[in-house]
Every structure is written in C-alpha cells, then in structure tokens.
C-alpha cells in the first residue's frame, strides 16, 4: 500500500474509503451512503496476490501529465462530412424508389382494367387475364409493403450490460479517469462491463447524446482477463482517442447507424418473411404459383436494391473508418508506447483464437451436460494454460498473413503494428501487471457478468445450478493439438445443433 494513502471503513455502511494520509482525523462524506465518517486510517486488507496489487499512488505517478493533442486533418473531416451526406442520401434514394413503386402499383390498378375490355376467348382466356392483372398487382402491393417495412423497422432491444460502480472498483475507475486526463477528453459518464473480447466507446443515449459529452465506455472482461495493465491501457487510450475526434466521431456515428440499418434490413428476417415463405410452400395450384412468383420477384428486387445501396455506402465509408482507427492508435501509442500497442494487438489475436477454441468447447459442453462455467474469463484462462507452447506463434502467424480488404472497417493488425513501430514512442504508462488487479474482486464480477451474458446476450435458459466452477471442466489434461484444445471431457463428433454466438472483435 502506498504510504501517501490510507484506507478506512465507513462507520455507517462499512464501505472501504481510500484517502490521502494528510486527511487522517478529518470527517469525510462516504461515497457509498453519503454519511459523515471519521478518517481513522485503518490498515487495508491484504490482497490474495500482493505482488499484483496496484495502488492509487502508483497509478497517479504512472499517468501524470498531458499528451500532445493529436489533431484530425481538416481534409479528413471534410471527406467524412461528404461521406455522411452521401450516406444520408442513400435511405432517401431507397424511399424515393419505394414511393415510385407504390405509385406504379396504383397506376397499374387503375389502368390495368383495359385487359378486360373484351370478354372474347372463353373462360380460360378470362382466367389468364385475371392472373395477368392480379399477379403484378398483388406482387407489387406486397413488394411495396416489404419496401416500407425496413423503413419503419426498429432495432431489436439489446441486453443491458452491467454498469461499473466506482465505489466497488475505485482503482479501475481511477485508471480510466487518469487516462482520460492524459488524452485530454471528458471522463465517460458510464462504464459498462460485458463478456465480449472487445472495448468500445459511444454515445450513451444514441442521437440524444450526439451534441454533448454523454459518452459510455464498454469493457469486455474476457479482454481484461487476458491482458496486462500496459496492454489494457493501450486499448482504453485507443477508445478514448476516438473522443478527441469531436466532429469525426459524430459523423462516424451517423454513418455507422445508417450502415448498420442497411445490414439489418437486408439480412434480418421477421414473422412477415416467415409468413410469406409458408404461404409460398402451401401453394400447389399452377395459376396461383404464377402470382406467388410475382410476389417473390418483387420482394427479391427490393432486397437487391437495398443490398446494392448497402455495399455502395459501406465501401465508401470503410476507408475513412480506417483513418479514424489510425488516429485513435496514435493516442494509444502516446499513452502506452509503441511496444505497448504492438503487444496489445498481438495479445488480442491470441485471445481471439483462444475464444474460438473455447466457444467450440462450450458448445459441446452445453450439448452434452447442459452445464456452463460460472466465469467465462476464468474458463478461457484455464483453457489457455493447457494449450501447446506454439499456440501463441500460431495465433501471431494468422495476424501477419492477413491482407487488407476494401470492406474492412479497421486496418489489419499488421498495418497497425507497422505504424506503431514507425512512431517509436516510449509512452507514459509502462506498468505491466495483471489488468484484472484493477478490479477489487474480479472473480466475483466475472461470475455476475458471465451469468448475464449467457441469459441475456446468448438467450440460454441457464439456471444457477447449471453454472459450475471453471476447474470442474478440466478433469483431464488438455490435448496437445490446437485443433483439439478443448477440455478433455468434451465429446468429439458432429457439430452440435445449438451454437453459442461469438461477439465480434473490433478493438
């Protein structure tokens, strides 16, 4: 414990309070319950792993100063503004096409009666005329409905992540606050914890927060569990670096929302799509099949138009998105050094491969036993210890072999590492302890977040009795082959029907 700081307990709620030693004997307000308590300077409890403890003074000394501001090029911001305008126009183009299609259906309904001007030819000709009139009319009407359905569709509700309580995890909060001061941005209003292998920063209330500094930082505990503090500082500084791009961040948000909307409406299917599919499968009459064919053709055409607009907008926005990532990397390099950024990118790739192996194992565990580990970060850490020694080399080899794509929102890790090496900066923060030591009780926090992840994000019906300690799934040594690097009690065989979804890696 740093001698400049002492710890006492609130006389009312028992909450631990850390304060400068100069405040001994003074009255202070408890951040937990708000009651007045005497700062007596009781000795702090010793952590289980004292060598990994990170003190307030240590963080303060390691994150002191202000980094030179990395300004965003005016030409880049102008380009981003033009892309944002272009992206806003794309949905308007689609809306105009939908209205034009609707008018075309209306015009055909009014003027299509001309085919009934003559009743010559008998019943068979009359049936053919009915099909020629009703087919395009019904198909066009359904197509117009399916065109307007995406415009009115709302985003699905997302699972609520666990909000960080600064009182429960003061060291982590201090760590982020110091980094925010270092990068010269406002401290995020909310910090959320989830089980992703990712970190991100965004507007807490969406468009309602667009003009202010109401930002939220999302931290994945799987990411934290596998990194040291220097690597984690690089990740957090990168995300906070986005906050220095005031205009670019807001224009990027608009672009991303429109881009995401196109992706969702092109690929997402709802009950109306299922109803149309069931109706098509139930039709056996050839004459009705012609009408159904018109309906499917119209819906297919509307989706193809959406797809073309989506691809066009995505391709235009991806180049500028990659430039935003390079700018955020420059903030990370200044905070954690070129070595810290390179190390974090290499470690992230190792964790990505580890997560893939781990989730494959979890699929089989769930299929066989209907049980899951109560802490996903602990499960992955335990799994990594049993992997072969060349696991890291294999993971890094996949990183170096990647090639940039036109539709990539991020530069490849190899490109980012090259940029970091060229910068050759020592950085401010160089402490390399376990990042999980920033939490007061990382194990318990992981269990809480893991349970929420299973139930809310993955939608699994997991009860408390189904959650077992991570060690319970490692009764035998793990195989020495990376392809078979799963807990040995998991059966091999066909891929299970139930697949546990994986979160994307976008740090």
Short description:
The protein is an alpha/beta fold. Helices cover 54% and strands 7% of the residues.
Q: What about the largest sheet? A: 4 strands, mixed
Instruction: Please tally the β strands and state the result.
Output: 10
Give me the oligomer status. Answer: single chain
User: Which strand order does the major sheet show?
Assistant: 5-6-8-7
Query: First CA to last CA: what distance?
Result: 33 Å
- The general outline is elongated
* Average pLDDT score: 79
Following the backbone from N to C, one meets helices and strands in this order, namely EEEEHHHEHEEEHHHHHEHHHHE
How does this model look, in words?
The chain is α/β, with parallel strands linked by helices and 507 residues long. The protein has 13 helices and ten strands. The strands form four sheets. Strands 5-6-8-7 form a four-stranded mixed β-sheet. Strands 1-2 form a two-stranded antiparallel sheet. A hairpin with a 6-residue loop joins strand 1 and strand 2 (16-20). The longest helix has 84 residues, at 286-369. The radius of gyration is 29 Å and the shape is elongated. Mean pLDDT is 79; it is low at 42-51, 477-486 and 488-505.
Per-chain topology:
Elements: E1 5-9, E2 16-20, E3 27-29, E4 36-38, H1 56-62, H2 74-111, H3 122-152, E5 162-163, H4 170-183, E6 190-194, E7 199-203, E8 215-220, H5 221-225, H6 229-243, H7 246-267, H8 271-282, H9 286-369, E9 372-373, H10 376-385, H11 391-400, H12 413-423, H13 442-457, E10 467-468
Parallel strand pairs: 6-8, 9-10
Antiparallel strand pairs: 1-2, 3-4, 5-6, 7-8
Helix pairs in contact: 2-3, 2-7, 2-9, 3-9, 4-6, 6-9, 7-9, 9-11, 9-12
